[in-house]
Input
Amino acid sequence: KNEVEQSPQNLTAQEGEFITINCSYSVGISALHWLQQHPGGGIVSLFMLSSGKKKHGRLIATINIQEKHSSLHITASHPRDSAVYICAAGSNTGNQFYFGTGTSLTVIP
Amino acid sequence: GAGVSQSPRYKVAKRGQDVALRCDPISGHVSLFWYQQALGQGPEFLTYFQNEAQLDKSGLPSDRFFAERPEGSVSTLKIQRTQQEDSAVYLCASSSILRGPAFFGQGTRLTVV
Output
């Protein structure tokens, strides 16, 4: 049983396309994180959400607490956006994160 | 530093060698987590500290894995007699209070040859 499910697993897009990555979770959470992981393994935290919507540059993250669902959107995608995007749910007991398996995004010029 | 710092960023170890991976959390952060991420997989829980107390080590895959946080700040994950299956990215995260905002390190990529 996976506490966090991400879709799609793999995504290829043309430069400029609008991209959506989805995350559903089944546990009670304190916050939902979106992480970006580049091929070298380095991880960057993009967003931490507990409600509503956040925007940073071309990235937008939304969360619907009632539906236990979050989305990460990338507008005007660029090849440098190519990475693995991981959804992580911080449990509301505070002692655990549950990770999705990641979405591998490739943006083609 | 302003964020969670992990070192080294990359480590290549010969099979059977012992390794030590370091995590410097944000100063004052109470909670500290270690995760293991195999290639193509999502991170898997290893262990959790609250201050110096290791409250959960249920994810450590074998007794070759050991984690400590003796003064409640820096943490070290030690892997003894490394095996090829230990090759992974080891990720550390910390948060200031229980259920508080969490910050992730960049990870250490361990390759066992």
Summary: Chain A has a mean pLDDT of 91.
